[in-house]
Design brief:
The chain is elongated. Strands 2-3-1-4 form a four-stranded antiparallel beta sheet. The protein is built from ten helices and four strands, in the order H-H-E-H-E-H-H-E-H-E-H-H-H-H. Helix 2 crosses helix 9. The chain starts with a helix and ends in a 7-residue tail after the last helix. With 307 residues, the chain is an alpha+beta fold. The mean pLDDT is 79. It folds into two domains: 3-63 and 167-303, no CATH class; 69-162, Alpha-Beta Plaits, CATH 3.30.70.3040. Keywords: Cell cycle, Cell division, Cell inner membrane, Cell membrane, Membrane, Transmembrane, Transmembrane helix. Belongs to the ABC-4 integral membrane protein family. FtsX subfamily. InterPro entries: ABC3_permease_C (IPR003838), FtsX (IPR004513), FtsX_ECD (IPR040690), FtsX_proteobact-type (IPR047590).
């Protein structure tokens, strides 16, 4: 037999194995759909969490800016003294900008934004202090040291690091990313085990057929091939269901999130997996299906031999 004939026979058996395994799956629609759903849910959970983190990261990226310090002056510090401190801070090389907001300006802004104009007008005196907004030089990494130094100034009642919350948010997002990776690893292992058990049951149901094929000289590779394609189809179907579940969840949450963003005068919209993300999920499912099938066939096929 020539090399070309061997190649044509090998290719023909691949085609036959792929079509036959897919036909067997469709012949048992209920069990196949249940298997696809189980795999899809296992893959959709980490994918949905990753999409959520990506959306949160998109929001936080728009907030990234040099950390700003808010210096609230003591009540006894006048506007002139506050302006003197502003000029002292502007002379420092580690400070890019200092904005002085007087207590009268702060009261007018608070009145306009809060909607309590009548209540605020009834106050005998302005309760708000003079304020300095200090912006460190972009890229400076001594913000905490600067915060401690300015907070110790006798003219300052309180110094607030306005971006400290964003640093905590970034730390939480890093923790979330690690949790997603850990959960994803566990669920991926679960998918491999589910597929391995499914293929093991398929092997047991076709034990007599396997024995006959080996009796007539069929190699382990020849016998293994249909089961590998079965695992591939289960994995691809599970990845498709996972992408569908994530898309459905995002569609369900899209309108409420858009309404919430609009209430904050934001144009933010939930981002999804996209075509490439969905395709990657399907490919990942197929690879996991092949892996689970390979492990199951390698483990159980050797124990089936003609007597």
């Amino acid at each position: 037999m020539s090399l070309r004939q061997r190649y044509n026979g090998w290719l023909a058996h691949h085609r036959q194995s792929a079509s036959d395994s897919l036909e067997r799956i469709f012949n048992a629609p209920v069990s196949s759909v249940l298997t696809w759903l189980v795999i899809g849910i296992a893959l959709a959970l980490p994918a949905a969490l990753e999409v959520g983190l990506s959306n949160a990261r998109q929001i936080s990226d728009g907030w990234n800016s040099p950390a700003q310090l808010s210096l609230f002056m003591k009540d006894s510090v006048t506007a002139v003294q506050t302006e003197t401190l502003r000029e002292e801070l502007l002379a420092r090389p580690d400070i890019a900008e200092v904005i002085h907001i007087s207590r009268d300006e702060a009261l007018r802004e608070f009145t306009a934004l809060s909607g309590f104009a009548d209540v605020l007008d009834s106050l005998e005196q302005n309760p708000l202090p003079n304020l300095l907004l200090v912006t460190p030089v972009s890229g400076a990494n001594q913000s905490m040291t600067l915060h401690a130094e300015l907070a110790a100034d006798p003219r300052v009642a309180e110094a607030v690091m306005d971006m400290a919350w964003l640093q905590r948010l970034n730390n939480l997002m890093e923790l979330g990313q690690r949790l997603v990776l850990a959960l994803g690893g566990i669920l991926v292992a679960g998918v491999v085990l589910i597929l391995g058990n499914t293929i093991r049951l398929a092997i047991e149901s076709r034990r007599e057929e396997i024995v006959i094929v080996k009796l007539v000289g069929g190699s382990n590779a020849f016998v293994r091939r249909p089961f590998l394609y079965t695992g591939l189809w289960y994995g691809v179907g599970g990845g498709f269901f996972a992408a569908l579940l994530v898309a459905t969840a995002l569609w369900f949450l899209g309108a409420p999130v858009a309404d919430l963003a609009q209430s904050y005068q934001s144009t933010f919209r939930l981002g999804g997996l996209g075509i490439m993300g969905s395709l990657n999920l399907v490919i990942l499912g197929g690879l996991l299906g092949l892996t689970g099938a390979w492990l199951a066939v390698s483990r159980h096929l050797g124990s089936i031999a003609p007597r």
